[in-house]
Amino acid sequence: MRLIIAIFTAVPLIFMGMGAKDVIEQQRLVASASPVPAVMRPSNLEVVSKYEKGKRTTVYRHLVAFEFTVSGQPWLSERVFPKRDVTDLETAQKIRADYPAGKTVAAWLVPSDPSASYLIREMEFTPYYYILGPMLYLSVGLGLIGSGVYRGSRRALPPQLDKTGWRMLRPIGTVVGRKKPWAMIGMAWYMVGVGVTAHYLTNAPRPWGIDALITLPAYFTVGIFSLVMWFRYARLSRHLADARVWVDTIDFPPGRNIRIRSEQMFLLPVPITSYKIGLLCEETSLAGDGKRKRKSTRLVYEDWSATKAFESAPSKEPIAAKLTAKPPIDQPASTSEIERGYPRYRWFIEVRAEIPGHRDYIARCPITVAATSKR
């Protein structure tokens, strides 16, 4: 898991760094340039083929040259734009018509490197794609970091003895645990988006490129999903606290009764159509032929307590649920963390509350059901 997180964070950051470097270089060429008289020389078009997403695309490189003088010394440049050197046929033909050989025009001089001077002053939006695009992958990495999976938070830890003599389990999938990753993703998404937008609109000469005017609103629209998800869990956390779960044993061998209980505080009165606690087993299998294999997950065993319903959940005392259950001897044991084969089995205790107008509240406590146990 740590390797996956490293890939989904380090690789996007590398591409974003490359994009930022190109953006800064392009800004330098645009900001430092000043107009200078130049005389056009004969030009030509070169056909260039590119392959993008398996498709062949034909673009055109404008072989243009213009001559100008800096401090009495003649210079020749072949750049049309500050950074890019290819364009579509319509733009290339328009450039040839607007800049015929022998015409005196206003070119843009780069004082630090006159040979890098160019004909048309613009800021291409393409380098910004290397900053915005990798955010999709970086968001996955941030989500994994925020959820704590790199710390092994999905593992079944031994129950911890408390003052009452019961043993407390650590739940996963809590309200706070689900809210935090979406907050991290949304914050990073919009910080990068605002930074890119501010930089481009502040530094790019007008008129702004149509690709920027389409991409930036689309980017911010996609980011709304993370805000919606964060808002859902933030709203839910205003109404309830996370459930606490206890058991009366330190291990969970098949065939032995386990007493389970939970308590949960509701901070505001809300209707609850179903509140229960259960012992469940989940199977993850791998299906498919050759390289095209897919994971599928299903419940193979479940045992729930009696369902409770409330017209208005009490806000001054916790709601409690109890269950006495045992892992059947005819069901598989938990799959070891070091085992990589399939199918894999995961046992857990789940608290579930169905609240109209909200997402269902679900908290899972992983446990290890072993074929043998130590008493």
Features of this protein?
15 strands; 5-stranded antiparallel β-sheet; 32% helix; 6 helices; alpha+beta; 375 residues
Protein model, in words:
Strand 10 and strand 11 form a beta hairpin. The strands form three sheets. Strands 1, 2, 3, 4 and 5 form a five-stranded antiparallel beta sheet that branches. It is elongated, with a radius of gyration of 31 Å. By secondary structure, it is α+β, with helices and mostly antiparallel strands. It has six helices and 15 strands. The longest helix is centred in the first third of the chain and has 31 residues.
Q: What count of helical segments does DSSP give?
A: 6
Order of helices and strands: HEEEEHEHHEEHHEEEEEEEE
Radius of gyration computed on alpha carbons: 31 Å
- How far the N terminus sits from the C terminus, by CA atoms, comes to 33 Å
Principal-axis shape: elongated
Largest sheet: 5 strands, antiparallel
Average pLDDT confidence is 86
Which parts are unreliable, with pLDDT below 50 for 5 consecutive residues or more? none
Share of residues in helices: 25-40%
Oligomeric form:
single chain
Beta-strand proportion: 25-35%
Total DSSP E strands: 15
Helix/strand/pairing category:
alpha+beta
Summed up, what is this model?
The protein is built from six helices and 15 strands. The chain is α+β, with helices and mostly antiparallel strands and 375 residues long.
